[in-house]
Design brief:
The chain is 66% helix and 12% strand. It has 119 residues and is mostly helical. A hairpin with a 2-residue loop joins strand 2 and strand 3.
């Protein structure tokens, strides 16, 4: 995610913003490719609603669809998630540095027990 694919990035982040779509991705990650009906069985919604979620995931490149006769099989496509991880990495580094600074500060502070004995 180097700033040139803004529309694609926005589609991925928008797709991930919804809990149902994140759950679909989790199911595909843990259980492998699945037909729409198997996915629909996990949700309390009508199939057209789930199909709309799958369309958003497909347009974001997070899932692919393969037709097998009358069935549509969905498969996780993880490459866009690597882009999200790349985008998040500087923030992870920021928080790690912040927490290290806090740890260093706490290490320099006297322990309460040692402080009480010297008083």
């Amino acid at each position: 995610m180097n700033g040139t694919g803004t529309a694609a990035e926005d589609r991925v982040f928008a797709a991930l913003a919804n809990a149902t779509r994140r759950e679909v991705l989790r199911l595909l990650r843990e259980r492998g490719p699945q037909p729409v009906q198997a996915l629909a069985d996990h949700f309390d919604m009508r199939r057209p609603s789930l199909s709309e979620h799958l369309k958003v995931l497909r347009e974001a490149g997070l899932v692919s669809e393969q037709r097998a006769g009358r069935k549509r099989i969905y498969r996780l496509e993880a490459a866009p998630l690597a882009d999200v991880q790349d985008w998040l990495h500087p923030y992870e580094r920021f928080w790690r540095e912040q927490l290290k600074g806090l740890g260093d500060l706490l290490d320099r502070m006297p322990d309460d027990e040692a402080h009480e004995h010297s008083a």
